[in-house]
Amino acid sequence: MIKHYILTAWRNLLKKKIYTFIHLSGLILGITTCLLMGAYVFTEFSFDNFHANKKNIYRFNTDLILPEQQLHLSLASGAAAPKLKNDFPEIRNFTRIVRAPASLTFQRENISFFEKNIIYADTGFFTVFDFDLAIGNRHTILADPNEIILTTSLSRKYFGDQNPVGATIEIDKELFKVTGVAADPPVNSHLNFAAIISYANWIKKFPYTETNWGWTPTSTYITLHKSTDHKALTSRLPGWLEKQNPAEPGVATILSLEPLTEIHFNKPRLGDFKPNSNKTQVLLLALTGIFILLLALFNYVNLATAVYTDRLKEIGVRKTFGASRKQISLQFLIESILLSGVAVIVSILLASLLLPWYNIQMGRELTLNFMSPLFIFSLLFIAVFLLGPLAGFYPAMILASLKTNFLFRNIPSRFGKVPLRRVLTSLQFIISIGIIISTILIWQQHNYMAGQNMGFAEKSRLVLQLGNAGSQSIPPATIRQAMLDIPGVQDAALSSHIPGENLHGVGTTIKRLDGKETHAEMELDLVDFNFIDLYQLKIIAGRKFLPSFSEDTAGALILNETAAKQLGFDSPADIIGQDFSQWDRKGKVIGVVKDFNQHSLQSSIGPVSFQVNPAMFEKMTISYQSADLPNLITQIENKWKQVTGNMPFDYFFLDSWIDSQYDAERRFSKIFGAFALLAIFIACMGLYGLTTAAVKKRIKEIGIRKVLGASVTGIVKLLSAEIFKLVIVSILVASPIAWYIMNNWLQGFAYKINIEWWVFAFAGGMSLLIALLVVGLQAMKAAVVNPVKSLRTE
Asked: By C-alpha distance, which of 589, 604, 600 is closest to 552?
């Protein structure tokens, strides 16, 4: 019997090819979208879940509360962890991590590169975390100061397919022994590293890390015993800290424990390894994927109730020959289940084919690993026992419940006025309009940030990596001078950092006009005499660094406006000449520059300071003017090799670097735009099928109206009127919902657009135009048919 139902269902689906195609393609697009979005959402919500003891791992954070500012750090003093372990028996283990402050020069034989994402970690690293250590002993590794663990990708880069364990590699003129190989960190880890150097090596270079409670260079993670209440432990930390390091007047230090699995979605902190994710944004994308699937389901139900009325006589005959309501319902449900099952299988194949493209758009290395055989079986199970019945239940129940005498009267108009169809059509437009509004606002916000003046010159600027300042064999000033000899190079400046990077965090003390001292935490960039001019930073008080003033290399400080204000000076001119103390230097403030965006427009402008310090230069910025840029790059590379010998040649364009800070917003805008087009397409496809079915049922009515003198325009208006009303209602419902959601999303940006009324008018107008075009074209096609042809009896 079931076989008979399946064969009948298959014949019926083939008989109505257009409607079957609309049904099937809508479901395929909806399910494929959900699968691809599932890969992204699954990755986002699985961050750090691969650690077996994840529920008991916490990051030790520090908050500094000053009179004029608050700093929220993901860092702590290197002295804290061992003392915590000793004083709190609840702590089972700990590990400390320090990120290398600059790119390090790796060299083996003739292979040499600047490497980023190098960390220093102590022996507890592989005890606290479950990163895959392919070679090495998890409990004893990283004990020796000159040990290093390479990731798989870095090992291949320098050693090929050889086993690197036991070999040596030179890092900034220092030899390290490879004692292990770790798998590359998974994409869903908030920790990111290319190699791990023993923490003992860091202590050898900076021994005061273990004793200076005011310096916070380490990311500290602790493992608590399972029965421990981390909130209760946190409440005991203030008293414990006061005993270790009594607070300074006007400065409050708050310690806290942050659960490992919550780091990815929590508010960003200074010192984070990776940019945190926007949970609202992730949920918005997830909801969009679900909405697109709902659009496909709404299409199915709408179109099914419209199309299945062609089968009224078939149902009547079945009922006359004794078919029960259950049997008729089962027939339609099997058709729906067949479609859903095929849609799931095709969607899985399509999602696999589209994944590489999707990864490029998202900027992630996403996988469909969650699609295990069990998952695929579960998805098919859902299609058969939930999705199919859900899509086919309503039309099946309606058709099966009709009385036999009504089925033979051939009056489908009552069935065509099913209230649910209007509701589902309205929901389709509400979802589509909401997605269009959101897409426009996301696009506006991205363009707003990308198009803003950052407050410094970024065009025609080339940045060269110099590596760790302490290991440079060629003085940076020598390299700079050589570059100035190249035609097309206008100027060059040396610095420890460039705009867009996280700078050194330092405490700064200034003597105020009343003789009292004030303190603030700020960022510090170490620059040469040309930096201010090359980046076109505007001096609004005092002067810039000048080589003619010998004190500028040892005791001069330039601040931005925000730094001056946080130190208590409302007028930039008042701070000029005041004594300062910063990072073991003392001297006078000589200038204030106009505020500029050191970081992206996602964050507000913070306090920034500048010192001249040739011993800390790690980058060179070149300003250029050339009609043949590739040739200029070649000349710069040749000059570099001539002056530096075998130092790696690593460069990038400043404007591209700044623009890359908005990659996440750009990708979000593009993918959301693609989903908006997909939603519109699915809605239009369903509207086309629905209109086609509706016109077919009213073909004789149209013929009669034409015989009685109705115009083509009048008939088109008649057939389009209901859709017009539904779209207007949908606009009124979708607009406030979209405004509320997007207004909340925009609150995550320090600089944001204003939501204008025209966005809602444009989205509504576009939806109305598309709907009327789809319906109008079908209506016009029917209206121009010869009424004799419409009224003839088959």
From this structure: 589
